[in-house]
Amino acid sequence: MEPTKKEHCPKIEYKKIGFDLKLSIIDQISNGQISVNHASKLHGISRSSITYWMKKLRSFEQNSKAMSKNQEIKKLKERIEELEFVKDFQQMIIADFEVSTNLDFAKKSLPEALLKEVEKKKKNLLK
Fold this sequence. Notes:
This protein is mainly α. It has helices at residues 19-30, 36-43, 47-101, 106-109, 112-126.
């Protein structure tokens, strides 16, 4: 009995598809201009490859949106901290001014919540 030789399967050559073409194909499919099936035949690309590109792009876009939302939240938190500092600083100036001049102009010009904070700061200054 002679040992059988293994027959080699012909290697399938894949086309390299540029990123811009991938985006163009996905855009045409998303806009309803062509179907996945038609794009596959038109460009000689498997439907599974096109579906894979679409899935990857969707995943990338979702991650990008999540990251941008997280960055926006971070910036807003930083801005809140800055504004809280400015508010506290302004209240300290008002409280210091009222203590040193014995004038109560904050009662006439500030909302109730801010007035209470200024009053607390004045009490701390008088201690």
